């Protein structure tokens, strides 16, 4: 059965300079089971409310890196949960050091949590799966920034249709055997042969894929992360007019983001994390669309379908 997935950019601004109409990084991904949060800049819990989303439905938070505009909303969010006497546990995945920072901050502020807080800290060489449910898997990739930064890829787990004739050719007739093959991906047969799920089944439809870059300069790991994504939400801190500045600070220009989307076979590119030096974002859009026409500027609080 298809899993409807939507996403909502809560903050699209780069850096810590305040702006009356723009907010620091934060993205909510909505599924039928839960609300997943990627980064948590200042004001994230208020942005969730403004978007009509329920902060209490968040059970998993994924942090790209430990720069202020991506994490300063976390202590406030946790304090809000404490005030509401939240009971359900919460898991935070992010770079090494996030646990020490959060625990020290909560201790200094005198905020005891009435719920369990679980951490998964990612080391510099981490890549691969960091989360899986019945319908989704999320993996991370180390990208290239001034500090350790992880991009995240969310992929729908699509139900497989087993071809009865192909299954029978391997002697598979029992529902229990086929169920085990679906779960494990491969199965050892009594005669010693091994059968893989790809040999007897195919997906009902192409899985929905969402990729989020955090902060990074263009790199091969980013292209791999975004491969065949329905949506790539990519930072575009600068335009080509400030390309050297982008390279110095390990950020991406709008045109560079478009090149990544084009080369990765992305369906739609949304530009976010844009410097407040730009009051008019038409230049970002124009230079990106020369390479990748399906480019859009991320609109804060707009709830978008991952696949229209």
Structure characterization notes:
39% of the residues are buried. The protein is α/β, with parallel strands linked by helices and 308 residues long. It has helices spanning 44-50, 68-71, 73-83, 98-109, 164-169, 175-184, 220-225, 243-248, 254-264, 282-289; strands at 6-11, 26-30, 35-40, 58-62, 90-95, 117-122, 128-132, 136-142, 150-156, 160-162, 186-188, 194-196, 201-203, 209-212, 231-235, 268-272, 295-297, 303-305. The strands form 4 sheets. The chain has a 7-stranded mixed beta sheet. The chain is 26% helix and 28% strand. It folds into 2 domains: 6-159 and 204-305, Metallo-beta-lactamase, Chain A; 160-198, no CATH class. The chain contains 10 helices and 18 strands.
